[in-house]
Amino acid sequence: xxxxxxxxxxxxxxxxxxxxxxxxxxxxxxxxxxxxxxxxxxxxxxxxxxxxxxxxxxxxxxxxxxxxxxxxxxxxxxxxxxxxxxxxxxxxxxxxxxxxxxxxxxxxxxxxxxxxxxxxxxxxxxxxxxxxxxxxxxxxxxxxxxxxxxxxxxx
Length: 155
What we know:
By secondary structure, the chain is mostly helical. The protein has one domain. Helices cover 80% and strands 0% of the residues. The protein has helices at residues 3-9, 12-34, 40-66, 68-74, 84-115, 125-152. α3 runs antiparallel to α5 (84-115), α3 packs parallel to α6 and α5 (84-115) runs antiparallel to α6 (125-152). The relative contact order is 0.18.
């Protein structure tokens, strides 16, 4: 792959675009769950699937963001391509990437607590589903904050 293509895929603009897409995805998933909160019993499996998918996306994206600097070093684009702007983007991505991983893991845990075969917590299933949806909103808020930080960062 060419260096320009790799820098383009990992650029501030690409990250902002992906963040916006994922924020919208988190909002859509949380909306689908919270608007049907009064009929969780009917839609529980679908809600669990939504949360599990969003959890996987948050964790995977968080890992990629957190390791952006290591990836660019591995591809030998750093230290030659390391500019002050790139260093700031790496710094923001590392911290927010870790935060998104943690939130995504907790979303996954909320689903796993429901699905765990030896744990009978049926009475708490609705609360865990709502908690997972709220954590997805928190993940979206983290990505929105990262987008704002990257957007306002001077070139």
